[in-house]
Amino acid sequence: MNDVRRPIKAALLQIHSLAGLALALLWAVVGLTGATMAFEDEIEATLNSHIMRVDASATRRLTPDELVARLQADSDLGKVSSVTMASDPSAAARIRFARSEGGTRPSSVYVDPYSGHALGSPRGEDFFATVRKLHRWLLLPGDGNGIGRKITGAAAICLIVMLISGLVLRWPHRARSVKMWLKPNLGLRGRGLHRSLHAVIGTWVLPVYLVMTLTGLWYSFEWYKAGANWLLARPEATDAAVQPNKPPRGAAAAAEKGEAKAEAKADAKPLAFDRVWTAFLQQENNDYGRVLLTLPAGAGTVVRVRSWSRDSSLESVRDEFRIDAVTGRVISSDRYADKTFGERVLAGVLDIHRGAILGWPGKLAFMLAAAMMPLFAVTGLLLYLSRRRHRRLARPPMGHLVPGE
């Protein structure tokens, strides 16, 4: 049996080593940028506490359109793309802007919900936006539509191969020994220490890396996303996600006429938020914690509304609506409470990817695991170089290979 396993392990070692050498730097960049973003929300909240909170007042808070109008009257920052409102009377509203013709996006602005006065742009927003682009797309042209997205996706698949091959290569003779699996031998020096750190710490972080890569592929390949939806979501939920605005078959003609009229009105006048805001408040009976209203990127009239409850601590635990900005009609309603377990998993891909599903301990564990990625690049390179040196020294001198000498 050992004779059979030996060539298999030798081949796996070659694959493991070559793939690691080729992609170590890329994995290190992705890992470090992911670790940097682990506590992004908490860092930004600390840096911007002076503009994220206001003094609560008994006066009426402004509607989204009133906030936008007063902000644009003070300064022209471009076309507004979304508005975030909160039920907390001391929370500032946040306004984001669409990309300009040059492709740049102005920084968002926090606004006093009572006066419409701009409180300032958040510190750290541009930094984390750049880190996010580096993490997802390697800052390559095209962003999510460019080659960077495919490169990081391919690197994630290769990392899965590395994790499996590494597990097979390090499988100890005493497989039931917890000490062999989880305790590095810090008394070693040189190659032995490098191998112990590489193997044991790799075992610690292997489950975390598997979760990171399997969820990260969701953002890289449409076929992967479609397969996950097919596997975990109900067929009707999948169809609604693909075509959320598809009308009933009997009302198709009427819907087309209504949409044509709505688009004509939208062309005559820019889309506004207030009708959507009113429809949402009626739908929820004013029961919400935080709401994000996002205008359509194209020429449509349907506004995307995401709502979080007051006690929600995860981005994935939210309700989502699509409301026509011209008519105020609620086109679709997707409530978190109505989702199946599989659909909740799909909705929480980002929270699972960064460990937030386990609270701050999970985020900390995922951050530390991601930050350790350069360790495997360094120890893997040292192990490769030591193997080459060992093979070179083990070779017999050329003179001894000549018969008669």
List keywords for this structure.
16 helices; alpha+beta; elongated
What does this structure look like?
With 405 residues, the chain is of the alpha+beta class. Among the domains are: 74 residues, no CATH class; 106 residues, no CATH class. The protein contains 16 helices and eight strands. It has an eight-stranded antiparallel beta sheet with strand order 4-3-2-1-5-6-7-8, with helices on one face. Helix 1 runs antiparallel to helix 16. The radius of gyration is 27 Å and the shape is elongated. The C terminus is likely disordered.
Question: How would you concisely characterize the structure shown here?
Answer:
The chain is an alpha+beta fold and 405 residues long.
